[in-house]
Design brief:
- By secondary structure, this protein is mainly alpha-helical.
- It has one domain (24-200).
- It is built from seven helices and no strands.
- It has helices at 14-18, 24-53, 57-82, 84-110, 113-137, 143-165, 169-200.
- The longest helix is centred in the C-terminal third of the chain and has 32 residues, at 169-200.
Length: 209
């Protein structure tokens, strides 16, 4: 069952669903595509705690392992819809995005301005590549909309890193709450684009195992 925005996926009109039979496995994939940005925000938050609050070193590897698992999970969703080549390409791009964010976090912690500038440039280059990829592979992901979502999410995340660095924890908490809310909106848009592709595309998706 599709839920409204507060409960899950944004409401999709019944007439569209009638044009394509949505299986439970396909609905599960749509849900996974929806929560990817919230998962990134949550595990990156844990990484910030490790870096800036000098947490137990064992936490770092556990957090990195979970962060590194997310691109593959989302890539496997894309694999069902767009094939292996597209899925593998985007998995690499998203993996690099997460690695750059963690490297930027380390640079900010160390006050390394040259590294901060370099990683920031790499980050926005990566975003441009991902925006072009997503808007090309699926016509229901409009380029400007995707660009605004990912750029705004990234700017909020960078602000979150700096507030941790500056020990402005009240502002930091507010930013994190805002990121989670924004991640839900991004997830709704991504999942809705997949559902539209599933409904209207002449290409038959693979059947999830």
């Amino acid at each position: 069952m599709l839920l409204n925005k507060k409960g899950g996926l944004m409401m999709i009109c019944i007439s569209r669903l009638q044009e394509y039979t949505i299986t439970p496995a396909q609905m599960n994939l749509l849900f996974k595509s929806r929560i990817i940005w919230r998962d990134i925000a949550t595990w990156l938050r844990a990484y910030l705690v490790y870096v800036f609050l000098n947490s137990d070193p064992e936490l770092k590897q556990a957090v990195i392992d979970n962060l590194n698992s997310l691109p593959k999970a989302f890539g496997n969703v894309l694999r069902i819809y767009f094939g292996d080549v597209a899925a593998d390409e985007y998995t690499v791009l998203l993996s690099n995005y997460i690695k750059i964010l963690t490297s930027l976090t380390d640079a900010i912690k160390n006050g390394d301005t040259n590294a901060i500038d370099e990683y920031t440039n790499q980050l926005y280059q990566n975003i441009n590549e991902r925006v072009n990829f997503l808007s090309t592979v699926n016509p229901f992901w409009e380029k400007n909309t995707v660009s605004n979502f990912i750029n705004n999410y990234t700017k909020m995340t960078i602000d979150e890193i700096y507030t941790f660095s500056n020990k402005n924890y009240k502002r930091n908490i507010d930013l994190f709450k805002g990121i989670l809310t924004y991640a839900d909106s991004m997830g709704d848009y991504i999942a809705d684009g997949l559902l539209k592709y599933l409904t209207y595309s002449s290409r038959e998706p693979r059947i999830p195992e």
